[in-house]
Amino acid sequence: MSRPHEAQRPFFPFGKNPFRMLSPKSSQLSSKLLAVLNNFEETLAERFRKLDPKETGHVLSLSWMELAMKSLCETHSDVQNLITALELPVCDWEDKWMDVYLDISVKLLDICNAFSSEISRLNQGRLMLQCALHNLESSSSEQFVRSSSSLDRWGQHISSRNPRFENCGSILESLMESLDLPKVKNSAKGKVLMRAMYGVKVQTLFVCSVFVAAFSGSVKKLFELSVSDTYLWGLAFSNLLTSVNSSIRNRPSSGRMAIFKELEAVDANVKKLSPLIRSGEGTVEEESVRSSVSNLHRSVDCLSQGLDLLEREVDGFFQIVLTGRDALLSNLRANCPASAQMQKNNVER
């Protein structure tokens, strides 16, 4: 994996909306804590607004998915800043939170690996297309046959299922269940932390569910959640969720596995080119073939660039989760010897 993000915290497993009734203006919080919390929530609200298809103009696309994953990484970075601002020692966190955190962070690593595996599979298909385009540079009929074979193999490959991606649905279900897990103890700093962590969990589940839908072609696992408007980001998230989920559900099916527009463009160009070269009548000199080859070339380049950029962001998120686990366990070993042994046993298990 690339692009390590040092000293950043990953997705934390705290309780489901534990402060539904806690207003951002709650008298229980000092002005300093309110400022820290409000800054975090307003920033999160702005990120949700920037992801709304009404603003970006498209969903689903690799560029939107890259933006969504980048936004998620930024939110996890903000959590680290919030923890630093709160000055809440790890030893003040309860052991049950640590158990759940380690369990959920493993699931996030698993889902990152599944995303990376699917991107690699799509890149393998891209190589088949590049082979076909290379063969089409020749005017020989033999090369045309090879090109046709490469296009057929690409169609079979892209329609197949990735075994490593099959368990993403169950991982998502498990993460959704984590929204209803142990609640925070009664402290002002704890309340701010829990509120912020709820926002992180919601964004993480939303982004991961969209990725699963995009890669699998199935809308069954799209995230649904009603968020209280006591959160400064609640309305922005509700608008985003409605807009994205409806856009995905209303997209016409291409008959392929994935449903993002860069792959759909490649598929459309392959379907247009294949009959021309399969007939044996076309040559590269013919305008229709030249035009179709050119269109396929552009769409493959666009797909390649999008996959490379998305892979970088997924790798970055993997590093955030992994670095967070290491940082947490190091902190425990250094400052909480008793808890450290319990966590060591947890990790080994």
From TrEMBL:
<dbReference type="InterPro" id="IPR004320">
    <property type="entry name" value="BPS1_pln"/>
</dbReference>
<dbReference type="GO" id="GO:0048364">
    <property type="term" value="P:root development"/>
</dbReference>
<dbReference type="Pfam" id="PF03087">
    <property type="entry name" value="BPS1"/>
</dbReference>
<dbReference type="GO" id="GO:0048367">
    <property type="term" value="P:shoot system development"/>
</dbReference>
<protein>
    <submittedName>
        <fullName>Protein BPS1, chloroplastic-like</fullName>
    </submittedName>
</protein>
